[in-house]
Design a protein that fits this description.
Shape: elongated
Largest sheet: 6 strands, mixed
Helix content: 25-40%
Structural class: alpha+beta
């Protein structure tokens, strides 16, 4: 058992961005994986860092890490990345270290995977909503990427922490497509004891603009929710709601000029 050098017609985000660091590709029979070897020392760092001609780059603490990639092939794809702590001397002889991560587009050194693999795991968890254990299984079966439940949970929390807050997100959506209608309803997520109500507001394009878990769906609570939405700069001209009196009164109080349309299935005879 060993490795076999291969020529693989791989075209990935990472290889496109870092082809100058690729040294060879091989099939590892023991691990049954395609391994693409990369070495950051191959890159022209003087030019990339815009350093003076003749500046020499030094490397300390050289190590190797396997970066997991999504694979549509029969085998997993791994980038075996050799890297270290890079530094150079300035004219006064001082030693300056530079960070690698900002220059490794598509590679996440701390999580030891590609950003594409990270996005796939997070999107499956958030959009499919099938549970972290199932997402881990799907990542393995569909893309040959092994990820633990705890790692996936950490990825989701870290990605969520980088997103804009609710107000800024609503402003971004409003700039993209002006929001003039609000489809207002509530949901009661399963598995909660006692049962909690979540107010949900989406626009005419089907985008969820705001969601808020509340203790009671009363007029005061709904009014406070709509006042916050209005403070985001949204001027809604029409609402589509059920027959809830709290919704009707709150809308009239916060958006007095907005038209109220009851859901069709509530007013059409069956």
């Amino acid at each position: 058992m060993g490795t076999i050098n291969v020529t693989v017609p791989l075209k990935t985000e990472v290889i496109d961005a870092h082809g100058d660091m690729v040294t060879k590709a091989s099939f590892d029979e023991e691990r049954e994986s395609i391994v693409v070897r990369m070495d950051v020392r191959q890159r022209g760092w003087r030019k990339r860092l815009k350093l003076p001609r003749g500046t020499q780059i030094f490397w300390a603490d050289i190590r190797t890490v396997d970066i997991k990639e999504l694979s549509a092939l029969l085998w997993p794809v791994i980038y075996r990345l050799t890297y270290g702590d890079g530094w150079y001397r300035s004219k006064d002889g001082a030693r300056h270290y530079f960070a690698l991560q900002p220059h490794l587009e598509g590679i996440d050194l701390s999580r030891q995977c590609t950003t594409l693999a990270l996005r796939a795991g997070v999107l499956l968890a958030v959009m499919a909503g099938v549970g972290l254990r199932t997402v881990c299984w799907l990542m393995q079966e569909l893309f040959h990427v092994e990820v633990s439940k705890s790692s996936l949970d950490r990825w989701i929390k870290e990605c969520a922490g980088q997103l804009p807050d609710a107000a800024e997100m609503a402003k971004i959506l409003n700039r993209d497509k002006p929001i003039t209608e609000g489809h207002f309803d509530e949901i009661f997520p399963k598995g909660q004891h006692p049962k909690r109500c979540t107010l949900v507001l989406r626009d005419e394009y089907g985008r969820i603009i705001a969601a808020r878990e509340v203790e009671e769906r009363d007029e005061a609570t709904v009014t406070a929710f709509l006042l916050e939405v209005k403070a985001w700069g949204l001027e809604l001209k029409a609402f589509y709601v059920d027959g809830c009196e709290a919704y009707r009164n709150a809308i009239k109080a916060v958006f007095p000029d907005a038209a109220i349309q009851y859901d069709y299935f509530r007013v059409c005879p069956t």
